[in-house]
Specification:
Number of helices: 15
Radius of gyration: 32 Å
Largest sheet: 5 strands, mixed
Distance between the termini: 80 Å
Helix content: 55-70%
Shape: elongated
Order of helices and strands: HHHHHHHHHHHEHHEEHEEEHE
Oligomer: single chain
Number of strands: 7
Structural class: alpha+beta
Strand order of the largest sheet: 2-3-1-6-7
Amino acid sequence: MMVCVALRVGIGTTGTSYLVTVAPYMLVSAGTPVAVLIGTLRHRPSHRAGWFLLAAAQVVYAVADGMTVRDDWLGEFLEPTPADLMYFASYLLLCAAVLVFIRRRTPGWDIPGGIDALVVAISAGLLVWIYVLQPLTSDSALPLNAKLTQSAYPVLDLMVLILAVRLVMGTGTRGPVLWLLLSSLALMFAVDTAYAVEGIADGSSVEESYLDAMWMTSLGLLGLAALHPGIRRFDQRSDTALPDASPGRLGVLAIAVLMAPGVQFIQWLRGEPVSVPLISAACAVMFLLVLARMYGLVTAQRRAAVTDSLTGLHTRRHFTQALAVECRRAGRAGHGVGLLIIDVDHFKKVNDGYGHPAGDQVLREVARRLAAGSRAGGVIARYGGEEFVVLAPHTGPGELYALAERLREEMAGLPVDIGGDLLSVTVSIGAAVAVHPDPEALLHDADEALYAAKAAGRNRAILSPAG
């Protein structure tokens, strides 16, 4: 690719015939789908649909390039030409490939990534409209078919850019393949925009070698992405969520949000007419999107503060607050409040004998069974280590003991799968219930009952005499 770029730039200054001048470009254009196919067949990614779509897009693109060379050589430019239709088809195939990548890397709804991409899309769309589409559509010298054809390219480029931003701002593994693919798509958008802007400024077709060099570089980066062995892991999700408030992400969003007032100021300095309704609408939409993003960040932080990352249950902090609130409510209404403290029997032996990953799996399974077997309206939390608590409002001693026994049997009834081995897991449960309860006293009574259950041989539930 680099050799062909050097040849294209060098030959372009010698006055050589047109077909010789474009030969290096056509070599890169035709070689790109071959590179994508070779990389896909050699590295065998687990899901190949996106890469095959990408190869198909580049085949169609190369055919369109060949048809364009023929039209330029023969001087046929009745828009839209067959080459234009082939280019449009290649854009659609490219968008389909990127959509497949997004879907594989983000199986669920990644709303934060979608909002971020939409903010950037609105900002880029505003620039494309003001500096590309509006001058094209207002040029009275162009016939309608030419306006529609030339306007379609910036719109399709913008669509590809939006999907590229969505790809990089969503979840999924990072690495050279992602950045090569993003660089290729971003460079393609930049050179297509430069071609359109220069054509508007000159009022004629543009045949600059530096534009061909940029197109060739974009195609080369795309082929390099497919040849990289990282495509084997490209469609895998990352183990951890992306940092929602990373400096890079915030910087991109800040630039995008400031773009609308910046464009308005630049137009004012140039003495150009300012489209106040358009810019105002863009600012309003981006402002609302940023508010939605902030709401999502605050909600996620609150959820993380009250959710145990291992089990998905509530944290001790949340349980303590819920217990205090429920005790005050019970004191006013005069109903009973039940509390269970649940301890996994001999949990240290699980960690020592099978390793901490097996211990984590046991805790997750205990949490799942507690959530499935508890009453609606209660609060289930991981109290610390291998201890869990269940807060059961409006519960009497008989109901609470029956709940404790049911949960104990749920634990002992089926072994836990820890990576192929089946491990029998039991729990000891201390139960306490009180009317007009004091939180500390209720916790103390349940804790005493738990110690009694352990002393009696474990794998049993004991109701505190105070209840």
